[in-house]
Amino acid sequence: MDRVGLWINRSKPEAITLAEHLTPWFQERGWEVYTDWEEIIAQKVNFLISLGGDGTLLEASREAAPYALPVLGVNLGRLGFLCEIERNEVFDALTKIIDHDYTIQERLMLTVTVTGLDQGIDTLYVLNDVVFLREPSGAMITLQANLSGEPSVRYPSDGLIVSTPTGSTAYALSAGGPILSPNVEAILITPLAAHSLSARPMVLSAKEKIDIFLARGEECIVNFDGYHRMLMKQGQIFHIERAPIAALLIRLGKRSFHHVVREKLKDRWHE
Question: pLDDT tier at 266 (50, 70, 90 boundaries)?
Answer without folding.
Answer: low
